[in-house]
Amino acid sequence: AEAEFLSLVEEAGSSSLVQEVERKFLGKGGVVSMLSREITELDAEGKREFGRRIGSLRKLIEGLAGERQRALRQLETERSEIEEKIDLSEFLFRLNTPRLGSLHLVTQAREELEDIFLGMGYVVAEGPEVETEWHNFEALNIPKFHPARDGQDSFFIDAPEGKDGALLLRTHTSPMQIRLMQTQELPIYAVIPGKVFRRDTPDARHTPNFHQIEGLVVDKGITMAHLSATISTFTKAYFGSNFESRLRPAYFPFTEPSAEFEITCAICLGSGCRTCSSTGWIELGGCGMVHPNVFHSVGVDPEIYSGFAFGFGIDRLVQMKHAIEDMRVFLENDVRFLSQFKGVQ
Ligand code: PHE
């Protein structure tokens, strides 16, 4: 019986099986109690001897079974700890794992521009993308049939005309000059970033919708020198202190005098290359002193107040800063392009 027990306990692979074996030997009707029955057939001496042996067999079985059970239990807890462990730090890469997006390159530039002007004490304003003909043209001293309208070929909205004329997608951010002067107390120091739309055939340097940032300052005693210094300060803040800006005479109906402003070519840093036609300068936008007719259209007295305005394309600025050959990539939303500019300032 002892040998049989030993081999069975050895075989039992789990603590519950050991328990079963123990029961089979020590339990009611088990092997040991069956053996005990034989005691009746023995004489007194034999009974004592037999009883001792049964007793030590019991002890042996209990002892071994207990030992084996403890050992197996420990193994079992160890195994379940391993099997049930959850590794919260584990990273499983799957194709459908969501990837982190980022702001569009143009949005990043727009926010950086806003910061620069906020730092100079300006406020940031936004305006409607659908404008009236009056705000977009007439109030800015561009009457009907003025040739300047041709340069800003417009998308008109198929809607009945109101008192301010037809509706159109704004062709520049300048109508916000009008809206600000109509609604804000003077003085005004504001920049207005936003989308603008023109019926251009898309090419490397034109897309039918793009972004501009407009600046408007109206105060007492504002001169062209303030305008020039402001543009120079912005140029250095955005591109770096080695960048210069300059003004060249130009014409806009809503400013007088008017200028185009140019900055150091970012490709050749002023030494001359194909991009800047060997001049070392790249034209960025338009600017000038607010035209008296514009002040009249919003009821500001040009004898008391003067001001300057400027406007330029944000997309063009980004194109220059990152030497992006074709502007159309801004609108194509190809992540292979966009993901190259995650967090670029
Ligand atoms: N609105 C002009 C344009 O879109 C730029 C400009 C703004 C010029 C303000 C002068 C003053 O071309």
TrEMBL record:
A GO molecular-function annotation? magnesium ion binding
A single Gene Ontology CC term: cytoplasm
Keywords for this protein: Aminoacyl-tRNA synthetase, ATP-binding, Coiled coil, Cytoplasm, Ligase, Magnesium, Metal-binding, Nucleotide-binding, Protein biosynthesis
Q: Per the entry, which co-factors are needed?
A: Mg(2+)
Domain Aminoacyl-transfer RNA synthetases class-II family profile, by residue range, is 105-320
Q: Where Mg(2+) is bound, by residue?
A: 256
Q: Which domain of life is it from?
A: Bacteria
Q: Which SUPFAM superfamilies has this protein been placed in?
A: Class II aaRS and biotin synthetases, tRNA-binding arm
- UniProt xrefs under CDD domains: PheRS_alpha_core
Enumerate the catalysed reactions: tRNA(Phe) + L-phenylalanine + ATP = L-phenylalanyl-tRNA(Phe) + AMP + diphosphate + H(+)
State the compartments where it is located.
Cytoplasm
Q: Please give the InterPro entries that the UniProt record associates with this protein.
A: aa-tRNA-synth_II, aa-tRNA-synth_II/BPL/LPL, Phe-tRNA-synth_IIc_asu, Phe-tRNA_ligase_II_N, Phe_tRNA_ligase_alpha1_bac, Phenylalanyl-tRNA_Synthase, tRNA-bd_arm
Which PROSITE patterns does the record associate with it?
AA_TRNA_LIGASE_II
Where the protein is mainly located, per its record?
A: cytoplasm
Coiled coil, from the record: 61-92
Q: What is its EC number?
A: 6.1.1.20
Any binding details for the cofactor? Binds 2 magnesium ions per tetramer.
User: What's an example GO BP annotation here?
Assistant: phenylalanyl-tRNA aminoacylation
Give the family, as the similarity comment puts it: Belongs to the class-II aminoacyl-tRNA synthetase family. Phe-tRNA synthetase alpha subunit type 1 subfamily.
Per UniProt, subunit arrangement is: Tetramer of two alpha and two beta subunits.
What is the protein's name according to its record? Phenylalanine--tRNA ligase alpha subunit
Naturally occurring in which organism (per UniProt): Ferrithrix thermotolerans DSM 19514
Q: What is the lineage of its organism?
A: Bacteria, Bacillati, Actinomycetota, Acidimicrobiia, Acidimicrobiales
